[in-house]
Structures are given as structure tokens and as C-alpha cells.
Amino acid sequence: MLACLWLKPSLKSALVVNRIMNKLIPIAKPIIGEDEISAVTAVLKSGNIAQGKRVEEFEEAFAEFIGTEYAIAVNSGTAALHIALLAHGIGEGDEVITSPFSFIATANSILFTGAKPVFADIEEETFNIDPDSIVEKITSRTKAIMPVHLYGQPCDMAKTTKIAEEYGLIVIEDACQAHGAEDGGKKIGSFGTGCFSFYPTKNITTGEGGMITTNDKDIAQKARMIRNHGQRERYFHEILGYNYRMTDIVAAIGICQLRKLEQFNDKRIENARILTERLRGIRGLILPYVKSNVKHVFHQYTVRVTKEFGLSRDEVKEKLKQKGIVTEIYYPLPIHKQPLYQELGYNDHLPKSEKAAREVLSLPIHPSLTKQDLQYVIDTLVAHVKT
Q1: How far apart are CA 116 and CA 283, in angstroms?
Q2: Cα–Cα distance between 296 and 48 in angstroms, integer?
Q3: Does residue 372 sit within a domain?
Q4: Of 218, 234, 256, which residue is a domain's last?
């Protein structure tokens, strides 16, 4: 109990309850309601549980939300990236420029096609790919740019699309963390071919699942064929395809979640505002930067823990864990430094990505957090600065 004395009375009570109940403040918590449960039950009772009408309904709703002509539902965000690359004809001998500071599926999806991921360094403030670094990496083999809208903040799409137009390149957006994000009032996923994930930690979830968005009819048709064994007509297989289909069970959840996405994002944005307002000015703690003219949907609230804080990033993570606050490091090792990529011969030096990997720490930001939860996270951090 003595360890709680620096807390406000209400927060001391909350901590005691948390300890008694062995309750943690998680880094992510999917919100599944009775409507999702009822929707899944209805699909199960219908007997039509594979890809069917619910998938079509989810695709139509998602395309309308993003503002594209087409949306193609698949079984993961990784599948979405893989299919998008294949649908654009990317393969052996091609190069795709992307960020090294992302989940490994971003780059691995390029390897799946036989193409080569080429890594451009990031902007220090946003953690997103630096357009100037993209230009430096373009060669005669470059076929596409795959920007990653990391943590829910849009990349600089004006510069990125301008580069793509100038050099005749395809833009495939890794929007797996950016559902509902906007750049200049335009939804992420509508600038090029968009790829989304519905993994449980995302802004909306279907358990597993993904979506491709596009305005190109031919790309949409090819993507549908690739996800379903290369067939346009049943049992007539025109191209090599995969089983990347989404089920109606998953789509039923997605339809319900999509209706709540704006509400979820508003709560994330409000939670971020509170954290930033009350953590501002702490020595050695660099808070998230939000670009002007964008809608950052805060898939993650990621700070930098620098030497001036007095504790290392990993020490802060452990201290918060001891107090029942779960944090995460996205990502502790850039992709070009991963063992797989070292074996493949990558020896890039990308200083901004490597520095970020040493300093980043994501705090809880999800919509399930109460104001008391947020204040507890804030007070715990402040306490460690003072000691």
C-alpha cells in the first residue's frame, strides 16, 4: 500500500482493486458486442458460412467508407498485401520500396512474389517513410512504392504520389494500422491500392481478416481471382491463385465493427489528447507528433524514451508492467536487421529507423480505457520521472 501513496485517492483505490483482481491495463482490447454475436449466430444458423452474401455486404460497405469503387475481402492483412502486389504484376526481378520500420509482413509480402524489398529510411517525427529517401532508392528495377501508415498516422501522400507519377510507379498503401485515417480530407486506402488488416489489435477487428481497396476494375477482378484459386468462373482456373477467402462468419463481425469505427476512432483520438496534454513537458519523453491536415487515428500511442528520462525504454516498460500497465515495443528490430534479412544479405544502415527501434514504447490507447485508467498511466509515468 505504501507504493500507492503518491496517487490520488480514487487512483489508489483503483490500484488496490486491480491488484486484488489481478487486473491489467492491456495494450489492446477488442470490443465485441451483442450485435456481433447475434450476427455470427445468424450466419451459423443460415448454413451459409463460407464466402457469400455477408462478405459482399462487407465489401460494399467498406468501399463506400474508404471512397473507392471496389473492396475485396480476404483472410488477413498479409494476404491483402500479397494479392495487391500480384494483381499489379509485381514479381521476379522487380523492386518495391518500403519502410523498414513496420511489422515484417510488409516486406515479406514482397518476398512472396519473388520481388525485392528495398528499404527507405523514415521521418524521425512521424515514423513514416521519408519521401526524400524514397527518391534515393529508385532504380531501373523499381516498380512500386509501399508506404506504411504507421500507428494510424498517414504518410505524406502528396509527395509520395507525386514521386510515383514522376517515375511511373505503382502505389500500394499498407494501411493495416490506419482504418479511417485521412490526409487532406481523403481517406487512406484511396490514394493507391489500399491494404487493411482486421487483426484483434486493430482499430476494428474480425479476429483475422483483411481488405483490398481500389478504383481500378481490372485490379479488383484480378484480386478476386487470386484470392479464390485463380478462378473467375467456378472450376475454371485461369491464373495461379490461393485460398485467401474471407468467410461470412468473419464478414458478419466486420459489418458490425465498421458501423462503430468512427466512434472507436473518436475515443482513441480523445485518449491521445488526454495523454498528450498531461504528459507534455516530461523531460526525456517525446510524445507523438501529428502532422497538420491529417486525421491520425492512433492505432498506437507511441512515445520515445530518450536518455534524458533517467530510465531506459526497457526499464520503463518493466516498471509499468510491475504496476499493471501493459505496454509494447512496435518494433524492437527494424526489418532490415531481422535475422531473415541478414541471411538474405541486407546490410543497410538506416539510422532513423534504428534509433526509433531503440526508443519507441507504445502506451495503452484503446477505446476500452476509462479516464481513471488513463490517469493511472499518466501518474505512473510522472512518478518515475520524479524518483
Answers
A1: 41
A2: 38
A3: yes
A4: 256
Q: Quick one: three-class SS letters along 160-207?
A: HHHHHHHHCCEEEEECCCCCCCEECCEECCCCCEEEEECCCCCCCCCC
Kindly state the cell numbers that stand for 336.
532490415
Let me know whether 119 and 230 are in one domain.
yes
| Neighbour order of strands in the sheet with 186-187 | 186-187, 182-183, 294-295
Candidates 188, 212, 205; CA nearest to 71 is 212
Average of per-residue pLDDT across 209-233: 98
Check: CB of residue 150 under 8 Å from CB of residue 170.
no
Of all helices (H) and strands (E), which one includes residue 117?
strand 116-119
Cβ neighbourhood burial of 138 (10 Å; 0-12, 13-18, 19+): middle
Is residue 87 located within the same domain as residue 205? yes
Closest of 225, 84, 19, 267 to residue 275, by C-alpha: 267
Residue of 326, 363, 365, 323 lying closest to 14 (CA atoms): 323
**Residue 137 belongs to what domain range?**
34-256
Closest alpha carbon to 107 in 128, 149, 78, 135: 78
**Cα within 13 Å of Cα(205), Cβ side:** 15
Q: What is the pLDDT of residues 243-261, one digit of tens each?
A: 999 999 999 999 999 999 9
Question: Does residue 20 have a pLDDT over 50?
Answer: no
CB 109 within 8 A of CB 135: no
CA gap 210, 72 in Å, rounded: 8
pLDDT digits (tens, 9 = 90+) for 50-62: 999 999 999 999 9
Secondary element (H or E) of residue 12? helix 9-20
Q: Is residue 1 part of a domain?
A: no
What burial class does residue 307 get, using C-beta atoms within 10 Å of its C-beta: 0-12 exposed, 13-18 middle, 19+ buried? exposed
Say whether pLDDT at 10 is over 80: no
- Among candidates 193, 175, 179, 170, which has minimal Cα distance to 128? 175
Beta bridge partners of 176: none
> Measured between alpha carbons, how far is 184 from 311 in angstroms, rounded to an integer?
38
